[in-house]
Amino acid sequence: MEYLKDILNDLIGINKGEWLEIKSFLQHREFKAKSPIIRAGEVARHIYFIDSGILRTYHINEGKEISTYFACDQQFISTFSSFITQSPSFEYLEAIEDSSVFRISYESLNTLYKKNSKFEKIGRILAEKNYLCVLERTLSMQTKTAKEKYQDFMNTYDKKILTRVPQHMIASFLGVAPESLSRIRREMLIS
Amino acid sequence: MEYLKDILNDLIGINKGEWLEIKSFLQHREFKAKSPIIRAGEVARHIYFIDSGILRTYHINEGKEISTYFACDQQFISTFSSFITQSPSFEYLEAIEDSSVFRISYESLNTLYKKNSKFEKIGRILAEKNYLCVLERTLSMQTKTAKEKYQDFMNTYDKKILTRVPQHMIASFLGVAPESLSRIRREMLIS
Prior knowledge:
2 copies of one chain form a homodimer. With 191 residues, chain A is α+β, with helices and mostly antiparallel strands. Chain A is 52% helix and 24% strand. Chain A contains 9 helices and 8 strands. Chain A has helices spanning 2-12, 16-25, 80-85, 106-115, 120-143, 146-156, 159-164, 167-174, 178-190; strands at residues 27-31, 36-38, 46-52, 54-61, 64-72, 76-77, 92-95, 99-105. In chain A, helix 8 (167-174) crosses helix 9. The mean pLDDT of chain A is 93.
């Protein structure tokens, strides 16, 4: 949990009392590999800070799972559009590996915002990060080759995600066929 | 400018002093139809609040203009990713019609954030709105028919934008050929 304290301190500068207040709202949860955390149609009630493990979001299009985001140790994740609008999620959130997380509820986060508006900055930074992430993915989908997309992915995502997330999940994230991704990876190893 | 005061008051509740502070940072600008406001490669130094007129963002892909956002009276616009990262924009911002705007600079907004963190909420709400907008567009692109996309566009965008933005700009936003959009519009008028 100390990591989260450091991240928040870097972000908004928090004193001991403020940290204790945030901490009082955090709930620890553990999820087994492949277990669902949020299902499509449910409202995302929490944002998750990953202590250890890997989580991903995905949606289902024409019967196929399309991965939309991956996060691992010391990163935040949720089905974010559902969380900020408090309306049913179109995405699923699941644990890829056994994962340990701290979660904070929508109500608790809003209580923090009301108590001290400096916490709004956390919400702003998270929203800006999510915005840049989805924008980058969209542009990449529209304008880049499969190889360029994979190179971007390697530059953006944590090594843990690159090496431990199943290839078909990464392929669906990139919008390329799993066979194409295998070929690209082989070519990159050779060249 | 009173509209902006009302919008901000609804959002974060501002007193007279706070409004005067915000107002002191606003600059009024007028742009002729078709004039560029931000060019790709430039850093977006401002966010724009539209008093009257229509603005759009677009990028160029394989020589073609792809519209990415439209805004009119009492709405905010910028090349947002460039603004929040203060790095070169991949998009253009231009006036579609003669437009009157109030702009605030990145530095001024950050001065407001530092002076009073309640202003962070404005940044959070803007970032969340931009996030939802790009996410919605991406999902729509991936999963919807041309007709569904146009129907979503009609439900989301202001009537002024629907009626006064040139059709080819809307077609590129939706990712459909201009002829397809004309056909869809004819069909919708008949049915």
